[in-house]
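Pasting as-is:
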Amino acid sequence: MTVSDHFRLRDRHILLGVTGGIAAYKTAELARLLVRAGADVQVVMTEAAGIFIGGSTFQAITGRPVRRSLFDPAHEAAMGHIELARWAELILVAPASADFLARLHAGLADDLLSTLCLASEAPLAVAPAMNRNMWRHPATAANVEALRVRGVRVWGPAEGEQACGDQGPGRLLEPAELLVRVGEWLGQGSLIGRKAVVTAGPTREPLDPVRFLGNRSSGKMGYAVAEALVREGADVILVSGPVSLDVPSGVRRVSVETALAMREAVLDAVTGVDLFVACAAVADYRPRQIVDQKIKKTEETLRLELVRNPDILREVAALPDRPFCVGFAAETDALAVHAEAKRKAKGIDMIAANLVGGGEGFETDDNALLVLWEGGWLELPRQQKTRLAEQLVSVIAESMDAQATIEDPR
């Protein structure tokens, strides 16, 4: 296991399923290797698995209580199995018995593990382990082939001596081999080895100790972009305005309040990075003077003198050894025209534009984007911001690779 492999698995969410079979003892070693590689591992055991290995072993290794029951009152009051299905970045069932493969093929959901395999959108891998005759049986072969067609990865089995004394295919792959498979899968990100800085959320410009000028940005899009970048292997610093969102796994957050503080944090972080994504809704203006005491409501009108805030994205784009720069544009009309004008004015590589107002853009869980770059554009349809961010990051990665090819045609 190399240092780069360790980085790839750091803070990755792996749901490790264990079904009934003598090979279950090997899964304890696999869990240990995954945790050692930096992964966050949640073990889910079937009832039959408990005959071969105790849950306390896995809890001691992973630091997480083993999940067994679909109707565990400690978790299901808040639909715990759905939360677990969303949490997983990869589901690996090792060992996967012939019975479990058959139930998975049939789409059954009669226990926690099979339910999670149906309810999760995470990629699914199975590592079969069974007697050689069971593995070679036409029913098992048909089940495995159908699962492969559905996109399930089938890792193994290996050949050799089995617990029953037979020789042939059916042995669980060794834990070290399974670890390599996990590392190769989760480590296939298009941005491995690249560093990125993302800004997200609003800024607040204080008027007095009580009031501030702000905007309606929730930060959801910027946080989704940061998370998508990490999933593609990037090392991400997130410079965030005040939001009520959890920090995505694997992301380092720098919290700020004002536009000036965000500028300072960005310029401190952006040196030597490969990508800068300016998703934050930075206030264009700030009060010239911040009053020390609360402003009293004494007059019918109140005049405020505002001064322009620095353009953080333009500054980064003008740096001598600048990163690939992506901006965001929130517009109420003429989306393509205004966005392209902004892209050119700021001198950036790409801009992602969306309409706001009328329930669109701010404070919503979904969005649509028009992505523009020199000589090209792409519309990303309305969808959950998490999925939208994944598609945007894919476009960014392709553009970065194309630019690198032009600069270094070798």
